[in-house]
Specification:
The protein starts with a strand and ends with a strand. The longest helix is centred in the middle third of the chain and has 9 residues. By secondary structure, it is mainly beta. About 30% of the residues are buried. The chain has two helices and 19 strands. The chain has two domains: about 120 residues, no CATH class; about 120 residues, no CATH class.
């Protein structure tokens, strides 16, 4: 049996300004060519049950807005967290500044309009190319808490899958378990990991990518999961920031932990 090896899973987007003007950057590119390889944090497969069509979306690791190849002043100011979500056809760039509204002072280079904190679009228009590589490795499903404890103490990389269905869609999330709690005395385990993708399944297929939220997830049983969604959150001073602050619980899911072998 196999599962995803996230240490060998990446998205790579290529921007070549000699072929098309940049669509997503907020500064003049220092060079005409750049390929950015970003490790994956989550894979989300959504199947429409009536048509059997499947869409795969991947979440890239968090990085920072930067100027590539410059001799100094690498970080753009104001700086943003940059988190990409892509399918083979569409992209969602999530750029988060210190507080909501700060992005209004940042312009998209070459377009004279403000940089949105969530920018979605067509990959073919934004990039010279986009590649998604999902590496696989031999995996063993862990059938009980003691097996999870043993795999944890044995320093095996762990991967989780969480699946559920609505009337229209069937979803499976696959993600690395970066933090896990175990207790072999009482036969208890609990994941605590993220970020993962959290889909809005009330949307039609073409707009699914626009509805994704980021979440941290936890479960200690096979059939439910609790998440903290990253949403606008009030702070003192009348400001809002993005924070993992909205708890949700989903029953009737299928959780499984795997160890890479």
């Amino acid at each position: 049996m196999t599962t995803i090896d996230f240490s060998r899973s990446f998205l790579t987007f290529r921007i070549d300004t000699l072929k098309k003007p940049p669509q997503t950057v907020s500064h003049p590119p220092p060079y005409t060519l750049n390929s950015a390889r970003i490790q994956l944090d989550c894979v989300c497969d959504i199947r429409e049950k009536q048509t059997e069509q499947v869409w795969r979306f991947v979440l890239g690791a968090n990085c920072k807005t930067e100027r590539v190849g410059v001799p100094g002043d690498i970080w753009t100011v104001p700086n943003a967290d940059f988190i990409p979500v892509v399918s083979h056809r569409q992209f969602l760039n999530i750029k988060t500044y210190t507080h909501l509204g700060q992005e209004q002072g940042v312009l998209l280079y070459g377009h004279s309009r403000q940089q949105p904190d969530r920018q979605s679009g067509n990959c073919a228009e934004a990039f010279d190319s986009l590649r998604i590589h999902v590496g696989e490795a031999a995996g063993e499903p862990l059938a009980n808490p003691m097996a999870i404890c043993e795999a944890t103490y044995g320093h095996h990389p762990l991967v989780a899958t969480t699946g559920w269905e609505t009337a229209r869609y069937a979803v499976e999330l696959t993600y690395p378990v970066k933090t896990v709690n175990v207790n072999e005395r009482d036969g208890i385990y609990q994941t605590d990991t993220g970020p993962i993708l959290w889909p809005d399944l009330d949307r039609d297929p073409e707009s699914l990518i626009e509805g994704f939220q980021l979440a941290f997830s936890a479960f200690n049983g096979p059939d439910w999961i609790e998440c903290l969604l990253r949403v606008p959150t009030d702070i003192p001073g009348g400001l809002q920031v993005y924070h993992y602050s909205r708890p949700v619980r989903l029953e009737g899911v299928r959780n499984m932990l795997w160890r890479l072998v």
